Amino acid sequence: MIARKGATLSSSNADIDSEQAYLTTLYQRLDQLRDQADSRLRAILLEAGGTPQGRTQREATRGHYAEQLAQFNSVENGLCFGRLDFSAGRPRYIGRLGLFAEDRDQDPLLVDWRAPAARPFYLATAVSPEGVTRRRHLRTRGRVLTGIDDEVLDIEAGDGSGREDVTGEAALLSALTAKRTGRMRDIVETIQAEQDEVIRSGLPGVLVVQGGPGTGKTAVALHRAAYLLYTYREQLTRTGVLILGPNTTFLRYISQVLPSLAETGVLLATLGDMFPGVRAHAAEPPAVAAVKGGLGILDALENAVADRQTVPDDFVEVDHDGYPLRIEREVLLAARTAARRSERPHNVARQVFVTEAIHQLSLQIAERIGADPLGGENLLSEADLAETRRELREDIDVQQALFDFWPVLTPRQVLRDLLSDAGRLESAGLPATLLRERGHGWTPADVPLLDELAELLGVDDTLKVREQQRQRKAAIEYAEGVLEIVEGSRSLDFEDEGAEKDEILSALDVVDAGAFVERHEVIDTRTAAERAAADRSWVFGHVIVDEAQELSPMAWRLLMRRCPSRSMTAVGDVAQTSELAGTTTWEQVFEPYVAQRWRIVELSVNYRTPSEVMAVAADVLAAVDPALRPPRSVRSAGVTPWARRVPPAALVEELVAVVRKEASLIEEGRLGVLVPESLESSLGAELVAAVPGAAVGEQPDLLNHVVLMTVRQAKGLEFDSVLVVAPDEIITESPRGLSDLYVAVTRATRSLGVLHTTDLPKVLSSLA
Ligand SMILES: Nc1ncnc2c1ncn2[C@@H]1O[C@H](COP(=O)(O)OP(=O)(O)OP(=O)(O)O)[C@@H](O)[C@H]1O
């Protein structure tokens, strides 16, 4: 465990002065680059007009400079944070981005933390120094150097007080004990060796990062995204990286960790955002979500689609060409069988259904009007039959009747109808517990079902393709007209100039109508992330899943579809699973998709929770699963966790008093009040009334000083001080209640308190 030391190796004033001078040079260079990007951007914004292609090009260049500017602005604080000295050669400065001198040699002034040359900053130790003699952490405020921490990586020369398993001890401790702000911070200055290994793993394959609470899984996942985008920039900017988090509050919490992520191809999303056009954030009982999350629902979805392919009991009659036309059950059965046998998705198989039905009906008509009264062969020729089929196909009444029996369907329509109709649920083989009001909002667990239905239904794009062809033909005709006009005016201009005329190029010599149209087609300038968000069939270059233990098998199916290359990073903790359809073993998740071709790495050090709090959590974890071991806390906070029993009638009063006291103790830090779902709205209302500015509700603002939420909402978050209310109810509220309590007690960076109205649960007896 690390404890704050009085001082790190002392640095002389001369050191401070020379480092400040260097820092100033770096900022000057940054300013210069920023000015350049700014003036280029302004120049582009002033340009106007031009061809659509020129405008597209300009838009791309504008995006490039805007991105550069945003990046330069985002590194203003903490531009340079480290320096490496080697036994030979010049020192190397490490920072949030790479900078090169303006001179012709373009000497590196600052090495980007993601570059291979920065790696010894995170890995070098006294035992394995990698040529490094000294690692220096530079502490800054704005552009001013406020301190220097040195580590001498030489066993002989060291002062013996450092820890071999922790790099940058002083800087790490200062980061860990800093007050929380409601937004996660980056850890580029203090990435630890085991984390660095994960962050810099290669792009291909599935990497699972298992780690207890506070081991930096989220931090590592985000830094990995930044590293991958830096290292495989071209590939990933094109295809995009998906980072999937558990809920919107969490996404907001992590959104500013690495500003560089926002500018490139990263899509931050929750499962509820993964079906374009749907924002699925409504709540539903965990048991219902569990049914939807299990693979057992696959058959039910197939049934639900099959149930929409109906046939009449007997026949239906339509008017065709002035005569009644009977569409017999047998005709539709034959058409349905043919369509189902085609094994195409429902909407695509519709073509087969219609063709077969029309064929059968044309034979029926031929039978009626072409029958030879003398009993010979049918009198209609093949051409007559083709004409009959054409007429049937174009007959609105026939079309409508066939549509009724094999309709074009959308995933939303099928799922909404299924979940709001007891008969359909039963017919599909689903329990009545899934029944809900028709107007009910979409829930996250609905999304994989919508996605699956989209696969089962498919899109019949023949009409779309036909429309695109029609539009292109019209555009070419228009272009031909334009070129003819150009051509016509040319002949007028050069009417009298004889031979010269032949030497002058005409528009038609350099471009034909097709090429003319192509040039004027607008190129899509959206980023990969923007396009991915709007496209269900988008295939990501890499997928990162946080709190991966919570995803259901159906959700994994969706994700695997979005990532056929299986280039994935999943971070999570199987001891913290609260979703009933979530997983408690990684094998279960990955074996079906990448049998034996996935790697698991464990993170073992808890950077968040102090040892006093972790001792309490360890008992809870032992009750979740005696085989699991909690991660080792890297520090102690010197604050003893406590529990207090209060009569139920006094709970609100006591809660308000404790919140007021704790809130003042943590000064500008953050206090999290974690409550059972059943008490959330009542306690939330009481707290807001008594402590104005406390954040409550579905998406509480974490920037507030005090936040009251359920454990489920608190997944992945942290607070300086945590107050857990009614732990017994947290345990009994869900079959995974013990895991929920484990999550609750591991959110604190400093202190933990528990208010209980019944006997303290046995797993918390160390607090008695
Ligand atoms: N190397 C590091 N340097 C500084 N801070 C770190 C480091 N690693 C982790 N932290 C900090 O520790 C805290 C916990 O990290 P993080 O939230 O990523 O953990 P986690 O494993 O995702 O936790 P949980 O499973 O509980 O959600 C964060 O405040 C993070 O910034």
From TrEMBL:
<dbReference type="InterPro" id="IPR027785">
    <property type="entry name" value="UvrD-like_helicase_C"/>
</dbReference>
<dbReference type="Pfam" id="PF13538">
    <property type="entry name" value="UvrD_C_2"/>
</dbReference>
<keyword id="KW-0347">Helicase</keyword>
<keyword id="KW-0378">Hydrolase</keyword>
<dbReference type="InterPro" id="IPR014016">
    <property type="entry name" value="UvrD-like_ATP-bd"/>
</dbReference>
<protein>
    <submittedName>
        <fullName>AAA family ATPase</fullName>
    </submittedName>
</protein>
<feature type="domain" description="UvrD-like helicase ATP-binding">
    <location>
        <begin position="190"/>
        <end position="610"/>
    </location>
</feature>
<dbReference type="InterPro" id="IPR000212">
    <property type="entry name" value="DNA_helicase_UvrD/REP"/>
</dbReference>
<keyword id="KW-0547">Nucleotide-binding</keyword>
<dbReference type="InterPro" id="IPR027417">
    <property type="entry name" value="P-loop_NTPase"/>
</dbReference>
<feature type="binding site">
    <location>
        <begin position="211"/>
        <end position="218"/>
    </location>
    <ligand>
        <name>ATP</name>
    </ligand>
</feature>
<keyword id="KW-0067">ATP-binding</keyword>
